[in-house]
Every structure is written in C-alpha cells, then in structure tokens.
Amino acid sequence: MLKLILRTFITVSFLSGFSTFVAAAEVKQLDEGVVSIASRTTALRSQGIKQAFEEVILKNSGTQSALLNETIKKQLGNASSLMTQYGYFEDDGKLFLKVNFDHKHIISLLREAGLPVWGKQRPLTLVWLVINDNGQREIINDASRDPSRQVFNQESATRGAPLLFPLMDLDDSMKVGVNDIRGNFTDNVADASLRYQSNYFIMATIEPQGSVYRYQMSLYPREKSAQSLQLTSVINTSGETATIDEAVAAIVAATSEYYVGQYAIADSGEQKTTKLSFADVTDMKQLVAIERYLDQLSAIKSASIGRIEGQTIEFNLSLFGNEADLHRLMALDPRIETVTTNSQQNLDYSAIGTQVEAHKETQIYYWKGQ
C-alpha cells in the first residue's frame, strides 16, 4: 500500500499518445503524512503525528527551513489539534501511521508564519541520472529496479516535487548515452527530453569516490529563454555523501528549493491587486471551473468577476505576491493557455485603497479545461 501511495500522490495528465505528456503535475495528498512506526502505543502515535505534521508542512511549503520557524515549532507541540484522522497499515511487514490534517488550517498556519505556500500545480521534472555502483555505470530508467529509483520516489513524495524518468527505449538510447550525461552534453539531452514535455530536466551523476559518493547535478528549463542564445542551467550543485540514498536526497532537495523560490508564494503584506481575463467562456460550467481554479491558486487572496463582455470574463484579483508570481504560476498549468495581452486603462489600488488610473496590460487566458 505504501508503494501505491508513493506512486499516486502525483497526478500527471495525458493526452492521446506517449509523446504528449502534459507539462506540470498536480500534487495530491498535501494534507497527508505517512511515517514508519514501531508499534501502536499512545506515546509512539503521538510522536508519529508530529513527524507526519512536519511532512505536511514540508510538502506545502517546499522548504526545509519552514520546520525551523518559531510559529511552526510552537504548533508542532499541538499537532494533533489540526489532525482530521489517522490510521495504521502494514506494508512488507512494516507498520505505518497515516495522518491527515486540515489543509486549510495548514495553509493559514504557513501564512501566519510568513512562509511561502506551494500550490497543487508544480513543475514536472525529468531526471537523467547516471549512477556508478559496483563499477558499472548506467542511466536509471523509468522501470529500473535500482534501489535509488525507489529513493527518488520517496523523496519526491516527501518534498511534493513531481519527478519522472526516461524510458530509455530505442528513441532515447539513440540520442543519449552515459557519456552525454557525464560530459554535460546538454543539446543531446535537451533534444531527447522534448518528447516528455516536462517543465525541467536534471542531468546528474552519482559515483563512488573513495569511501564516499560524489554527486553532481544541473537543472535545466525545457527550452531556452527568448533572450538566451543557448540553454543554461538554473542551478548547479555537487557534494559528497556517505551513501547513494543521501546523494539522491540532496539532488531532490536542491531541485525543490529552487522551485520554492520560483513558484511558492509568501504574503508580501501589501495590498496588491490586478486584473486578468479569460476568453471564449461559452457556458456556466466553464465559468465555475475557472472560479474554482483561481480560488485555489496560492498566489491569489481573493478573486471576483469584474466585467463580462461577450464571451470574455474579466476578474479582479487580490494577490499575496506580485503579478509576475501569478503569471509564472499559471504558466505551469496545462489547462491554461495564454492568448494575448490587452492594453487598456485599468484601475490599480494603492495600499490605502485610493484608486489610481494606470495604463496597464491585462493578460488574457483561454481555459482548456481537463
């Protein structure tokens, strides 16, 4: 059952055919923590609830530093007050405690603590990993039984950072070999990555070096930016660990921390507002779906319909962060397509609520739905 949990906490949408993986993934079970436990005693259950609470905080904030926040540490002493249910199950002869918490209260707690909140829609990352164990180098594929593959699953679930691995079928093998990854030949790997439609891809190696393991990793966006002549990494990191498992954890942690900086949004403390529009809204079902979508975005405090003109719906939004945060977050969602921007006179609002005329562009989106 635990393996099932690790496999299903992330939902990746598919269109027809393998080559149309939809970029980004929706992370499920953000209110749930699962911890290994020795027995069903009250004392161990209380300890397990606290561990599960820390897991949920980590998944919803994305950053390890959230666990050091004084507000979070204070709530940890009374974690059970936010619990909605708990239960035990066994897997491979081991006992586990599964705890669910009130998700709205978890988000409110993070906001109160001044911490970033990472929403359900998160970048999907393709992992190209060469691992050297027992003197053999290999590229870890999706079906690999190498123990590191399961560790990636576990770290992905703990961090709430969706990952996938290449098939390494004939198409992949013709384009990417061990030396391409070890030599950091980005063009070959970037070309092979396109079929997966992930938002980012990792090129990484884990190799023994004396009594330790040395890891190196680089994270790349799917495509180069319009301003760049070549694809450049957004993070590069390396280090030494005692085990392969620790190296895997370090790679996933570095990836997650970068995404938190890009997509998790803290309350700025300012009263920031903006407008955006959805075009070609033809029925009430679409409108309700759009309203629900906006309401759950971690960048938005509140959303209301400001204007309806034909089949275009304009929304007034109050933001936790800024407009760039909002649009960067929306760009991840496969249900959203950018149409254009519409230059017009919009009303912006100062922190004290005074209306000010400002010439701005309203971003227009198209709702593709599921």
From TrEMBL:
Highest taxon listed in the record's lineage: Bacteria
Protein name: DUF2066 domain-containing protein
InterPro entries: DUF2066
Signal peptide: 1-24
Keywords from the UniProt entry: Signal
Species of provenance: Shewanella halifaxensis (strain HAW-EB4)
